[in-house]
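[audit] Reproducing an earlier prediction to check determinism. Same input, same settings, fresh worker. If the tokens differ from the archived copy the diff job will pick it up downstream; this log only records the rerun itself.
[audit] input (299 residues):
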Amino acid sequence: MPEGTRLNKFLASCGVGSRRACDALVQEGHVEINGKPVLKPAHRVEPGDFVKVDGKRVQEKETSTVMFFKPRGYVCSREDELGRDTIYTILPPLLQHLHHVGRLDRDSEGLLVLTNDGDLSQALMHPSKLVEKEYLVTSNQPVLNEHLDLFRSGVFVEKTRMRAKAVDRLSSRRYRIVLETGLKRQIRMMFLALGYQVQKLVRVRIGTLGLDDLPLGGWRPLDAQEIARLQVNPKPKPARRPAVKAAKKAAKRTTRQQAISDRSKPPAKTSRRPAADSRPPSARNTPKKAAKRAPRRKF
């Protein structure tokens, strides 16, 4: 087995950036080891190596991971070429070395993970892992049911098929959308392709970890159990049996209609004539004739 740590992983653990960003830095010649430039991200960094990025020495830092409730109006970047505010302008200095896992666009808000753990970033971002991300979306107008079906089956945007794993209507203009892959501005592009505009978008869950009571703009560190929850999707709900459910509804409806019908019927007429006694004469209780009283004697 090769010794040492891959250069891109080492740089990510130093807080330089994500593995993909570190790959680009290495390939563009920004990194040197022990005074010599290195152009291969797979190069192994051994203990005692002296690593520099753009002339500044970098060292591994203790692995840490936090969850952050990104507000609207901030860009997920360390520096923005347009001069817009970034998430690092509101994060405290002790989190500046962490890189964001995935992105939320400037107009979106919600759960964002920041870490210097390259393996965790890879596990959350690689398409083969199929980690769920759940969003609450508000549209500018109600979405037709047939368009919601297209969200599930796939919407083609610039020859790219975009689809959601699950879509649920919460109200006339609010929807719950679950993605397994995160293409750039995917939800907004899907809505726009079908003639709608997203007015609000909030990411509320990654894996099985949700925002819970984290305030807007707030952050907190994650423990080992919560980091594990990031990488595990909720268990699928058992499929409903529509035939059985429909049969139960039909039975209840029939019973209710029968009860209403019974109440509306007029009461049955009963004859006032006494019923004939079918017993033999010997068994009948024939009334006895009253005995004649003897006349009282007068004294």
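[audit] rerun output stored. Observation attached for the diff report: The first helix runs from residue 7 to 13.
[audit] end
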